[in-house]
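Records of this kind hold a single protein each, on a pair of labelled lines. With that in mind, the following record should read easily:
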Amino acid sequence: MNNITIVGRIGRDPELRFTKDGKAVASFSVATDHGRDDNKKTTWHNVTVFGQYAEHAAATIEKGSNVIVVGKLDISSYEKDGQKKYVTKILADEVGLLCRWNPVVADKTEQVMQKVTQAFGQPKFLDDEPF
């Protein structure tokens, strides 16, 4: 069984691109920490998401977001200058924002209504009776 789950913070905004046949692919990095104080170590993980889920991930997460990533560990290799190189990444099945450590998003209803009022004047409300 090949499953991996990490909890960390997004290191760079997702890069969204498309294959020749139009399938979306999003790539980003996630940092995980372990240890304390002077012994604290950060490990960077490359994450790839495919399809419509890639588009959603690219639209909803950004650098600094705290996330949980669930997927499969993928290790591939290639040759460069006669040497074999290895690339390790997580092929994500799930990426979710963690509310516990992400800042609360402020309700901007009041600000939006002020802008609407400035642009269109004071809203007029209809009476309870339509006729």
